[in-house]
Amino acid sequence: MTPGMEKRKVDFTDLVFYLAIASKHARLMVLLVSLSLIGGLVYYVYARPLFYSRSVVKFVDLKPIGQDIDEVQGNRFYRQNILSELSDSAHVIRRVYDRLGYVETPDNPGRPMHKKVSASFDSENNIRLDVWVYDPSWAEPFPEYLVEEFMADRKKRAEELKTLVETRYSAELERIQAKIREEHEERAKLDKTYNPDQLVIEVEQLSAIPKQLFQVNQKLDQIERVRAQLLTSANLTVIERLTLYHSVDAGLRPGMIVPQLDTSAGTGTGTSAGAEPRRRGFLLPKDGEGMLGGDSTQHGSRVVSREVLNENPMVWQTLQRDLFRLEQELREKSRMFLDKHPTIVELRRQLDGVKKALDKALYDAAYLFELSYARLRDQKKSLELQMPQYEDARARLNKYEQDKSVAGQGNDWTQLMVEARKKIENAVYAAQEDRVELSFVGHQLVRKQVPVSPNRIKLVVFSFAFGVALAIGIPFLIEFLDQTVTNMDKLEAETHMKGLGLVPDFEDTIAEAYPLLGSENMTDPDMLENFRVIRTNLVSAAATSKYPQVVMVTSTGPKEGKTVVSSNLALSFAQMGDKTLYIDTNLRRGLVHHLFSVRSSPGLSNVLVEKLDVSEAIRETAVENFSVLPAGDHLDGDIEMLGSQRFQQIMEELRGKYQRIVLDAPPVLGLSETAVIQPVVDGVVLVIWSAFTSTRQIRTAMDILNDNHANMYGFVLNRLDLTATMNRFHYYYYSNHYYNRYQSMARV
User: Fold this and answer.
1) pLDDT at 80 over 50
2) How far is it, in rounded angstroms, from Cα 549 to Cα 677?
3) 3-state SS assignment for residue 221
4) Were both Cys, which of 284, 643, 701, 742 would link to 676 (CB 3.0–4.6 Å)?
């Protein structure tokens, strides 16, 4: 198919094409079917006959007491295991062999007497047992013996399991009991040494000490930050100091025992009634009674009274507001009255009273603050003294737990003993109470006279079907793997190159003589017409390509018929009336002078190398309008001269003298002449040997020509066997039958 044309759809002609393929390989197809049937016959003769029986086995699955049947061992999987054991237990089947009297001989060591055993459940929850055996006498007794030996094997394995478990776990129980006694003795020694009950009580009583110590340290940190700010800030007012004192909870409660403070000197910076200000702290009263209340205790301590703590601790905020109010009012009245005015005197008296009350509130807050600080320090000291006791008790308890764990080695011996006893009980129960009970019921079908395999009808059908599959598959596989060319349409689709025509195959004697148009070897009218078709298609290529005045004919490889095609194409142009020159450019092994019985020298090589005039080398022939330029002598450097300026000048000179010039060029693959010559020609015709040249060679040759910018006119399919069925169908119009029929109609 030429480029630009649509792909043809599958139609009746394709079906006929497939029939042609079948006709081509008819003998091979018949041979394959015959071999398949013969193979089936050989199998029927030498195959062991197979006999069959189908039996019913009653299946009873006992449910253990107190358990549902679907909850024991995964009932569905358990039933499948029963079927698998019944079908595939080699040792059970071996015992059946022994019961049936099977004896191995040197001629058949280990030869099986059965092919397959299949077990499945039917609709009544019974087991359907299918058996295939090679001995007809075994078909009937084999299923019953298999069920009996299967049940005997289960009982035997259960007894062996019971004995093994009892033997193993009895020794394990004795070892566990000895370990339990040793562990009890070690724990008794530890209890006597550590007294764990008393130790646990002691740890629980002391466990609150770390938490209390942590809380005390937090409160001390808060108080110490406030004290540091009070001691480092000397310019704080009374209100600012009161705010700092009350920012921390003193933590005093009624009935709490606190230490007795030394009131002989202060620790801060401030003022009090009737006292001079000091650099550090406040002067505290010499006697704290009336402030704390309560009775004195031993070691210089006192008890906090409820009355002191019940007083409003935030009264200083009210005094602060009164102070601001009186100061503002005094400033306003001072603008109106003199200093001796009664209103001014009264306001100053009230202002002094508020200041004294604030000093007293500051004194009280400082006293409670320092008292709480002293109490927390004493409490911290007391807790730190108790911490070693807690740590010692905790260490002794940890040591006891560690020694106890080492003595017990981390094992729960009691639980291990319970599990061992449970395994013994399960093994005993499994041996005495098997869940499954199988009993042989009878046969449903027995085939012991006529074997079930090999089946003659099935074997014939399968053999014939297999032979037909081979007969269809192998020929088409051969066609698929065949990379040679016989179909012009297929080659056009793959190469996107136009098919100019075809040349039917000659007989060997004619092909060896290189038949030419008009010669004695060329008498068939269809052969003459084929070259006329090639010439016509080549001339018509001028509509879409260069005018074919100088045409180079080449092939992918040697002996593909390019000389026959090129010479007859040149003769066809001459018969048409065009003045034609046929040039042999194959300087390695030119044959043109033999075809036309002319002298080979001087020729093209002499013109190129020895600088002869080209007219001296051209030979006239007996054919009108037809001349020949032979290859000439073999001279050094003649092949290189094909790409020289000299050759281009010669071709330009010949273009002015001849209407058609046909060049017989060497093959494309492996030689360089074609690539060198093609710039001086108008186009290239590629000759392809049918059923010989592979598509890979064609693609390679086309790639080489396209890389050198060759103008491809098309290809000629040479030596096509029209007697083949496939080719006769595709190329009907090229055959003798078509021409003979056409001539008969013309005569009529």
Assistant:
1) yes
2) 15
3) helix
4) 643
- Give residue 42's pLDDT: 93
Question: What mean pLDDT do residues 340-362 have?
Answer: 85
Distance CA 568, CA 571 (A): 5
Higher pLDDT, 20 or 511: 20
For residue 147, give the amino acid letter.
V
Q: Is residue 106 part of a domain?
A: no
- How far is 132 from 116, CA to CA, in rounded Å? 5
Q: CA distances (Å), 469 to each of 29, 36, 41, 464, 466, in order?
A: 10, 10, 18, 9, 5
Task: Let me know whether 477 and 497 are in one domain.
Answer: no
Task: Tell me: do 337 and 248 sit in the same domain.
Answer: yes
Q: Tens digit of pLDDT for each residue in 362-400?
A: 887 888 888 888 888 888 888 888 888 888 878 877 877
Place of tokens 């090639």: 534
Q: Which of the residue ranges 148-152, 663-667, 737-741 would you say has the lowest mean pLDDT?
A: 737-741
Helix (H) / strand (E) element for 114: namely strand 114-121
What is the overall mean pLDDT for the chain? Answer: 78
Same domain flag for 507 and 633: yes
Domain count, the chain: 3
Q: How far apart are CA 384 and CA 380, in angstroms?
A: 6
Question: Which pair of tokens denotes residue 217?
Answer: 């340290």
Largest Cα–Cα separation, the chain: 169
Q: Find the domain containing 35 and state its range.
A: 12-47+454-481
Assess contact for 248 and 218: CB atoms under 8 A: no
- CA–CA separation, 304 and 292 (whole Å): 5
Same domain (yes/no): 548, 675 = yes
Instruction: Please report, for residues 558, 658, 672, the alpha-carbon distance to residue 586 in angstroms, rounded to integers and kept in the order given.
Output: 11, 21, 11
Question: How far is residue 140's CA from residue 135's CA, in Å, rounded to a whole number?
Answer: 10
- Would you give the distance in Å from CA 267 to the centre of its chain? 81
Examine the fold and report which residue of 481, 516, 548 is the final residue of a domain before the chain moves on.
481
Question: Strand order in 51-61's β-sheet?
Answer: 114-121, 127-133, 51-61, 436-447
* Spatial distance between the Cα atoms of 19 and 40, rounded to a whole number of angstroms: 28
H helical segments located in 47-140: 75-88, 90-99
Lookup result for tokens 């005993």: 428
Q: What does the pLDDT read at residue 276?
A: 34
Residue 30 and residue 471: Cα distance in Å, rounded? Answer: 7
Verify that 591 and 664 share a domain, yes or no: yes
DSSP 8-state code for residue 734: G
